[in-house]
Amino acid sequence: MRSITRIPRRAFLRALAAGAGAAAVGPFWLWSAREAWAAGSWDTSGWNSPGPLVRYPQKTALILLTDRPPQLETPIQYFASQLTPAEAFFVRWGHVGIIPTSFDLATWRLRIQGHVDRPLALSLDDLRTGFPQVSFQAVNQCSGNSRRFFDPPVPGGEWGNGAMGNAEWTGVRLRDLLQAAGVRTGAVQVTVQGLDRPVLPQTPQFIKALEIDHALSPEVLVAHSMNGRPLPVLNGFPARLVVPGWYGTYWVKALSEITVVTERFEGFWMAKAYRIPDTPFASVPPGTVPARTVPINRLDVRSFIIRPSPGSRLPRGKPVTLQGIAFDGGFGIQQVLVSTDGGATWREATLGRDYGRYAFRQWTVEWVPGGPGRYRLMVQAINTIGEGQSLTPRWNPAGYMWNRIEHVDVEVV
Questions:
Q1: Same-domain pairing of 258 and 361
Q2: Contact between 274 and 399 (Cβ < 8 Å)
Q3: E strand spans, 50-114
Q4: pLDDT in single tens digits along all 413 residues of the chain
Q5: Which of 114, 250, 305, 376 has the lowest tally of Cβ within 10 angstroms?
Q6: Within this chain, do residues 179 and 75 fall inside the same structural domain, yes or no?
Q7: Cα 47 from Cα 69, distance rounded (Å)
Q8: What are phi and psi of 298, to 5 degrees?
Q9: What are the residues whose beta carbons fall under 8 Å from the beta carbon of 157, sequence distance 6 or more?
């Protein structure tokens, strides 16, 4: 294994905390699992992927999927709060081999270019002070969240349910940047690229594309902060794209170039990868190949039981508050239904405060467990246009868009 230069953790965190005004952040070295701080235990709940808990800079103990590139999953307990803490937010790198590990903010620029009147090269300070600032909550979910539950199994990162999170994102509307650059007539799409780079020249760059109308909508954000603080390095510092209601593949991290184009972009990560069956529910019979595909796009409906956690032992006859979250692709959650008898009967949960149509919607149900034994608790959500979840798992060969009705098994004693 190649040698890795290490810096003291406290010194690194002090440097990054000062990053908002500092000329440079780094060097930031992404350590392998052997060099990360091992938390000394494994997650075996069945809700997440089974794996060791490790600590990387700016991160609490997260579940390790892979160390090079870093893919880290959020444990279940962090979803009990409305906002997923930045230090517990999942990490997904790995489309190309070389990811950014150091930043010189004196030279870093976000370039707005292509089919525009006035190409721009914006510093982080420009993004923070030169445009109106916008904040909102939105769920970021990996396309392959919950892939480990597909049967038959499919290739790809074997995520449990923790490749998601809800944060308050702050930054500049992409529309404001494009308007400042002056989008010319004839623009078709906007492509977005970060600082990550392939190891081999023949490997395609990780570039994503949005339709021009979507890019010019008031929802898409170039974010420099999450939960009121600068983005963690592993979550996209200095700036990342936030595409609320769409899967995380479009939320490009460590932004470097935004390009307006006059023809449809046909790069690998749009034309070949991150595609779903062009069928109802983006599904095909297990083990088959779809006849036609389209790029993955809007989040489907999901809901989860967070408390009690899987395997909990509960005293009979004593009230228990069932707690969880629900979200969708932006239509908003209308109803959450909960079963405490394995799906035989359902009752409506009480919805918590609405923090916006792209955010987690918390819910609660009061339950008094009966006699001793094993209970299967289940939850399903329905959004405002009637979309819901399925008892029968849906399947596609990429392992995307899992939205089965979820359950948690508990023991009453």
A1: no
A2: no
A3: 51-55, 62-66, 71-73, 91-92, 103-104, 110-114
A4: 222 223 334 433 343 343 333 334 444 444 444 445 566 567 767 899 999 999 999 999 999 999 888 999 999 999 999 999 999 999 999 888 899 988 999 999 999 999 999 999 999 999 999 999 999 999 999 999 999 999 999 999 999 999 999 999 999 999 999 999 999 999 999 999 999 999 888 999 999 999 999 999 999 999 999 999 999 999 999 999 999 999 999 999 999 999 999 999 999 999 999 999 999 999 999 999 999 999 999 999 999 999 999 999 999 999 999 999 999 999 999 999 999 999 999 999 999 999 999 999 999 999 999 999 999 999 999 999 999 999 999 999 999 999 999 999 999 99
A5: 376
A6: no
A7: 23
A8: -80, 145
A9: 65, 66, 71, 92, 94, 142, 144, 147, 163
For the chain, the straight-line distance linking the first and the last C-alpha, in angstroms and rounded, comes to: 50
User: What is the rounded CA–CA span in Å between residue 265 and residue 191?
Assistant: 7
Looking at the whole model, is its pTM more than 0.85?
yes
Same domain, 228 and 284: yes
Q: Is residue 13 a part of any domain in this protein?
A: no
224: CATH: 3.90.420.10
